[in-house]
Every structure is written in C-alpha cells, then in structure tokens.
Amino acid sequence: MVKPLHSLLTSILLTQKKGYNITHLLVTHGHPDHIQGSFVIKQAFPSIEIIASSDVAVEMGKSANGTLAFFNSTIGTFFQFPPYVPAPTPIMPITNMTIDGEMIYIRPWAQAEAVVGSYIYVPSLEAILGSDLLYNKVHLYLVDASLDGTGPNWFSNWTKILDNLFITYPNLKFVYPGHGANGSTEIINNTKQYIETFTAALFAGGSTYPSVRDAITTKYPDYAPSSLNFLDMALKKWYPTYVPPSTIPPTNTPTNTPTNGPTNTPTNGPTNAPTNTPTTLKPSTNNGLSLVVCLILLVIVCF
Ligand SMILES: [Zn+2]
C-alpha cells in the first residue's frame, strides 16, 4: 500500500481503531519516497517493526543520502524529505512469513525500477503488493533503469520480471501497485506497455527528447500530471540538454522544440551511458511539484 504520508498515517490510525494490530512495515526498496515517512510511523507506533530484505537494507545504507540529495534537489522547493531514516531489520531476500495463520511471500527483484527491491504475494488473497515494479496511471520512474548505462538491459529485465509474475502466480487476481490505485492484473500489462513505449521511442532512429516525451504523453494523456516529473527526470538522463517544458520561460517559442538532438547516434537512438549523475540534475521548477510524497510500504496487518 503506498499512500501520501498523512493519508497512510490516517489509514493506520483507523486500522488500529478497528482493533487490528499492525506489526510490521516492509520497506520495499531504497527510494526516498518509500522510506522517508517510516520514522513518523515508528514514532507514532513504536511497537511496529520496520523490516527490509537484506539487500534492500544494504542498498539503503549505501545510497540513501545520495538519492535523498537527488530528490531534494529535484523537488525540494516543494518538500524536503527529512534526513532521518530508521534502520530496518534485515530479513533474507526470499522469505515466507506467517501472520495469524496467513502465509505471505516476500520476494526479491533486481535491476528494474531500482537496483534491488521486494514485493509481496499473498496466496490466500491471490494478491500481489508489487512495490514499484508496478505503477497505475502514474508516469514511471525510469531514472535508475536509465542509469544502467548499457542500453536497454534494465528495461528489458523489468518487463521480464513482469511477464514472470503471470507464470509464477497463475491465480493472481488483485494488484496493489507501488504508485496509483489498486486494481486487476491489467496493471501489470499496462506497466510493461509503458516501458516498451518509452524504450521504443527512445531507441528509435532519429529520436529526440520531444519525440520521446510526445510518444508518452500522447499514449498516456490521463496519467497523473504531477508524475511528469518522473518522465522529465528520465529524459534528462538520456538528453543532458533537455529542459522540461514547464521550466522554459513563457516568452520562449515552442516549449517542445529541441535545442539539441539526442547525444547519441541518431540511427540507434541513445546507446551511451548517461553522463550526468542524479545530483547534477537541474531542479524542476514545475509547480506541480506535487510529485506525490508517497510513503513506503506495505503495511502488514495482523488480524
Ligand atoms: Zn521507486
């Protein structure tokens, strides 16, 4: 379950009021919007144990500060993520937990939306809590996949993971994405299609950043406008001269006119590693800054 911070706290309070006992918070991966609210919950509910797979816990320790700086520099005029993150209790990468007799599977993924992560499958509910492997009507955060630096590997790895969900869980019915509303397995197909649309436009011969942005915004006009920040961040990785339309002064002519083409071979699209690191990204001054401050996680409720 991923919700804006205050919304999640409200949900937890209501859940507690109904007599449920929340025992764990699972940190699914190391992105700040999925960890930075955990300290508030821990303060409010000290008995909740914060857990993460051992590789996610290690990754958080390695990259939390750098990623946090990147996020704060990008959306920081709107919101600064707090610096304190409680260290989670590491658990093994593949873990089955039983809570009140209900089995839940915590399963690892790697080299997709982030370098490592976890999702949950609950067999009795035929439900997956997919973490940021899955998005629903929210533009995908493709920056880490773009940082792979070897081309489409992380993108194709991500879509393979999505394909395998159907093979591994043939009875799967309910999907809880990392961003966006829950729904059916259609969310898995849509997430895969988004990645394929982006990469097809990106690696098309003669691609430019407007052509890639247009391909996405034309195909997904109803996706959360504030999440265009995610798309802009990814484009900035592939086209260092890219300036998001919202940052171009209004006196300028067409907001989508490229000032430079792609930095890589036109016939092959971008094939080189992005040269700038996350902290060198220009902050977006998009007033939509409203990149929803999502919180973690999967709240494990003990009935
Ligand atoms: Zn993420």
Characterize this entry briefly:
Helix content is 34%, strand content 15%. It has 303 residues and is α/β, with parallel strands linked by helices. The strands form 2 sheets. A 5-stranded mixed β-sheet has the order 4-5-6-7-8.
Which features does this protein show?
alpha/beta; binds zinc ion; four-stranded mixed β-sheet; 303 residues; globular; five-stranded mixed β-sheet; Metallo-beta-lactamase, Chain A
Overview of the structural elements:
The structure is a single chain. This protein has 303 residues and is an alpha/beta fold. It has 2 domains: 5-198 and 291-302, Metallo-beta-lactamase, Chain A, CATH 3.60.15.10; 202-280, no CATH class. The chain has helices spanning 5-17, 38-44, 54-75, 143-147, 153-168, 186-202, 209-219, 228-238; strands spanning 21-26, 49-53, 89-91, 95-99, 102-110, 116-122, 127-129, 174-176, 298-302. The strands form 2 sheets. A 5-stranded mixed beta sheet has the order 4-5-6-7-8. Helix 3 links the parallel strand 2 (49-53) and strand 3 (89-91). The longest helix is centred in the first third of the chain and has 22 residues, at 54-75. The two termini are 17 Å apart. Zinc ion is lined by residues 29, 31, 34, 113-114, 132, 141. Zinc ion (ZN) binds next to loops.
